[in-house]
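Input.
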Amino acid sequence: MPFLSDILARVKPSPTVAVTTLARDLKAQGRDVIGLGAGEPDFDTPDNIKAAAKRAIDEGQTKYTAPDGIAELKSAICEKFRRDNGLDYDASEISVSTGGKQVLFNALMATLNPGDEVIVPAPYWVSYPDMVRLCGGEPVIVGATQEAGFRITPAQLEAAITPRTKWLIFNSPSNPTGAGYGRADLAALTEVLMRHPHVWVLSDDMYEHIAYPGFDFCTPAEVEPRLRDRTLTVNGVSKAYAMTGWRIGYAGGPEHLITAMRKVQSQSTTNPCSISQWAAVEALNGPQDYIATSRAAFLRRRDMVVEMLNAAPGLSCPVPEGAFYVYPSIAGCIGKTSPAGTRIATDEDFATALLEETGVAVVFGAAFGLSPHFRVSYAASDEALREACTRITNFCASLS
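Output.
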């Protein structure tokens, strides 16, 4: 009798975590490695947020809390949704978890039955399909090409919906492409959803505050208020406030869904870290000037990386609307051979040879559901990015 569960065989380890771990291990061995695999701001957490955490420790805020968040943090989240998104939630409609990933997992675990379908636009964050499978559902992948701006069309969404569809997972700006859906794009999608009242929307807004000039962020329940009662709007403090290690994600949604998610969380992790929760209160309620400062740095880095990668032979790098990723095509490199003799048949071959021969760690496109591409995280120093892009350009030029 097998020891491991059957469902585990349907799930793969996270490729982004694997690449980041490998880059870290190679560095520890003395290799000259530039890791561009992690989706993690390289900036430090703002001082006012760190001070709030220290204050929480000094005041003894180190005990268990309510399973899905302290009242003060739920209040701050309600105000954030009103202030930034025009969404009005009560504290009973708010869930706080150990990172955005747990919010998503709780929602899927609380709602999916075997055979339920979840529409996942591709390119997608690597965890979406496997979380769906782990919770017993079936991911339905809808592909968006570079030519389409990495955005799915209303016709594609309509064609993907069946009587078994339970969720659409929506992410804008996107990981891995940085592509964003403008208000008109999103309104066209929500019009389709209004024709299918059995389909819920799981909107992952984690990169809301990393949106660049020319793109105005909006979220589904804001664009179409009639979707509010079947939308879970997910966000967190990780990307906006450089708090990845603090592990605080949150969501607003209908009370009956939030109650079900609380039940799941009460039997898994229970409450998120109490100290991190108090830090998140300060992040949401305190000065917001850090966001504009970090966004300006990401914009500068985006422009440099896009320019350098578009100068590399065989690469085509679109300009993203937000987040801190680019997703260049390597179509012009397929079929070529590296100086060390590796034949580039896939984007995984490209990423492997790039790491082995130049020390630059990126994530191959097949991990995100669209090839032949690779993802670069430009949440790294200007110097590291400049050197990495130079190595990538030289590597592409060396292919024969």
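The domain at 63-285 is CATH 3.40.640.10 (Aspartate Aminotransferase; domain 2).
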